[in-house]
Amino acid sequence: MKLLEGIRAVVLADHLVDFGGSILARLGAEVVLAQAAPLTPARAKAWHKGMVRSDAPLETLLDDADILLDDRRSTPRHHVDAMAARYERLVHVVATGFPGETRPVTDLTLMAQSGLMHVTGTPDRPPLRLPGEQAYALTGIQAATAALMGLRARRHTGRGQRITLSALQATALANYREAVMYEHTGRIGTRRGNMLVRGKSGVRQIWPCADGYVTWSMIDNPGMMRALVRVMQTEGAAGELAQIDWEEILVADTDQAVIDRWQDVVAAFFARHDRKTLADWSLEHGWGLSPIIRLSEVRDTPQLKARGVFDPDGVPGAIFAVHAGRRP
Amino acid sequence: MMGALDGLKVADFSWVGAGPRATKDLADNGATVVKIESARRLDLGRRSPPFAGGDGRNPDASVFFAQTNTSKRSVTINLSDPRGVDVAKRLVAWADVVVENFGPGYMDRIGLGWDSLQDIRPGIILASVSVAGRTGPMAGFRGYGNSAAAWSGHCDMTGWPGSEPHMPPFAYGDVVAPMMLTVAILSALEHRDRTGAGVWVDVSQIEAMVQVAGDLFAEMPAEKPANDDPDMTPHGVFPCRDSQWIAIACENDAQRAALEEILGNAAVAEATAGRDASALETDLVAAGIPAAAVLDGKGVSEHPALNAAGHFVRVEHPVIGPAKMPAPPYTFSDTPGDVRPSPCLGADNAAVFEKIGLTEAEVAELVAEGALA
Question: Does the beta carbon of B370 lie under 8 angstroms from any beta carbon of chain A?
């Protein structure tokens, strides 16, 4: 179902709004890519998906457009303002790197300013970014959101409007924890690798298994711990864990040496089984474990295949599933 | 002036992060969002730190909850009581949009499944967000914060080349899925306004994380990219004085030449070591080079550009006191948003229950019997 059928958008892309235009296109809007900064072929395949390129003059394209996504990451494009203002019903989304200014930014420098890189990675290595181009992707989603809110407002006012969006804010908004934690506790997060630290101890999040890795953590959830240990007992692998009353234990208050000893027992158990076996047990018994799926395996997972997430071109298509409702 | 979403009515059954962040987007922009909660099954967000005054027992002291639920209203309804469900149905009849992120099948079990919602309110939009989606072999999957990162390839691709998978240090699925949910709701409204038909939009955290890694699926790199880029050099994070770091990314020859003029011919990491990250950022940016000091939570909180832009709005919360809340990253010229404090638990019971037609006596009786609690 094409939710945005009948909507027309024009996109001037320079990394910040590319994905936003593609989102609108994949939801059924007719989206024209009027200008675009160069991308690698792979990035163009993903971020420009669904948009149609056009060399027509911008003014011509705007004649019947509802939305203009206007990316000013590296170019001020001031002349576009006067042109856009002539179209009373146009929803004009202007995206910049920093609020209201053209300043040199890239995905990496935006991530650096978000507070997220500071806590990603290991203490012995430099701060690390999330994979892909997350600052650009986050900004693109916000560009689509702003455009759709502008359309909604237009239904009431009959007019379009100018909406400014900054990539710095879009990226910083994804960091829901570090700034607020500092403000209210004075604590500053650090890079902990794969260790989940709660209270006086830290627990592992990533575990090798027979054919890769799984993620699971020994947290204060007695039901989950009992469910895991029951299967380990059946498999003859529970060791001292079988004697522990998990209702009486607070993992967060347990000495690290004890946690490490318990985790060694779990590690030996996980190492003997493959991801599917462990994931199936988790689903059946409620362990909260997930297999770590390799990037190359994601397309073929039964869930994503059943939901039709990837198109034949190998990149994701539909943004979400839509189930039709009854017509009133 | 009105907000962009003035007049939009949302019955919000969602909790913790993945649903509430989407309904915050709507509420901050003028929608009336009524959050259906219960003291008997407290939103786990209300139990999430940090807490004002360190008071983790007060359901209204969580700053995590406060920043995730700005501008909303709160009512307390016991959905395990059929009379509570009847009240919830009145809210559905009032609403344009119902939002939920319950466990699999819960809405059906309490009589608020998709078919029932349409019976109550023809043209309703149902917005669901879950780890794996509401259809497919994993429709019944109960996940945790790490699940979407594990299933989407993010965990596999995070980290340094040759290292084991790395779990992002925060629930990124709880960030991108609600953003997609907001897009889904707004798109569904556009569709309904045009056709009159409601829809059920079904957002999956795994799929949202797959979408934002679209470039990786197109490229299918054999190794984790870490801080490298296929198109830019230098492109990385380099050491500075006092354990600071600076990110530098050159997109073209002009930027590379400017960088060499400032740092000289030495290796970048050698040239940045010993310099102040913030001062170096200023020099590089002035020369047109994308550069930024790596900020921690304090740096983000005190960021001059973020604060000047109104990224944090100071609100007065009745329990937390004055506190900075994140605002939307966009500004509307004609329909500005308005970020207001999050509601205390059940703060809007009287006003909302009156709006949906309950008398004071009926409310008192339902409260006494535990249906509104």
Answer: no
Record: contact A19-B214, CB cut-off 8 A: yes
Q: Tell which B residues from 72 to 111 touch A, by Cβ distance under 8 Å.
A: none
Cα–Cα distance measured from residue B181 to residue B22, given in angstroms and rounded to the nearest whole number: 6
Given CB atoms, is B56 within the 8 Å cutoff of chain A?
Answer: no
CATH code of residue B138? 3.40.50.10540
Chain B residues 256-285 within an 8 A CB cutoff of chain A: 285
Same domain for B251 and B336, yes or no, is no
- The top-level CATH class assigned to A195-292 is alpha beta
User: What's the confidence (pLDDT) of residue B144?
Assistant: 74
Interchain CB contact of A118 with B (< 8 Å): yes
A166 to chain B, closest Cα gap in Å: 6
Q: Which two tokens stand for residue A232?
A: 């380990």
**Structural domain harbouring B276:** 245-293
Q: Round to whole Å and give the CA distance between B47 and B28.
A: 23
Task: From chain B, pick out residues whose CB is under 8 angstroms from the CB of A174.
Answer: 172, 175-176
Does the pLDDT value for residue A219 go beyond 90? no
Whether A328 shows a pLDDT value over 80: the answer reads no
How many of the other CB atoms lie within 10 Å of CB of A124?
A: 7
Residues of A in contact with B236 (CB under 8 A): 108, 126
> What's the average model confidence in pLDDT over A58-75?
97
User: Is domain A8-173 given the CATH code 3.40.50.10540 in the classification?
Assistant: yes
Q: Chain A contacts of B108, Cβ < 8 Å?
A: none
B141 chain-A contacts, CB cut-off 8 A: 283, 303
Which pLDDT value is given to residue A253? 82
Is the pLDDT reported for residue A244 higher than 90?
yes
**CA–CA separation, A84 and A40 (whole Å):** 30
Would you kindly state where each structural domain of chain A is located, as residue ranges?
A: 8-173, 195-292
β-strand A195-198 against A91-96: which pairing, if any?
unpaired
Whether residues B50 and B118 fall in one domain:
yes
A179 touches chain B (CB under 8 A): yes
Nearest-5° Cα angle at B354, B353 to B356: 65
B188, B204, B330 ranked by CB distance to A165: nearest: B330
A24: Cα within 13 Å, side-chain hemisphere: 33
Which one of A2, A102, A106 would you mutate to disrupt binding with B, by most B Cβ within 10 Å of its Cβ?
A106
Q: Sign of torsion, CA A92 A98 A102 A108?
A: negative
CA distance A203 to chain B (A): 13
Cα B310 to Cα B326: distance, rounded to the nearest angstrom: 9
- How many angstroms separate the Cα of A144 from the Cα of each of A18, A151, A175? 10, 11, 20
Mean pLDDT to the nearest integer, A76-87: 95
Using the 8-state DSSP alphabet, how is residue B252 labeled?
S
Q: A158 in contact with B at a CB cutoff of 8 Å?
A: no
From residue A167, how far is each of A84, A98, A163, B93 by CA, in Å? 21, 6, 13, 38
Whether the pLDDT of residue B12 is over 90: the answer is yes
Q: State the pairing for strand pair B125-130/B32-37.
A: unpaired
Report the pLDDT value the prediction gives residue B143, as an integer from 0 to 100.
Answer: 80
**Residue range B233-265, pLDDT digits in tens:** 999 999 999 999 999 999 999 999 999 999 999
d(CA B91, CA B12): 10
Question: 55-74 in A: which are within 8 Å (CB) of B?
Answer: none
Tell me the C-alpha distance between B212 and A25, whole Å. Answer: 16
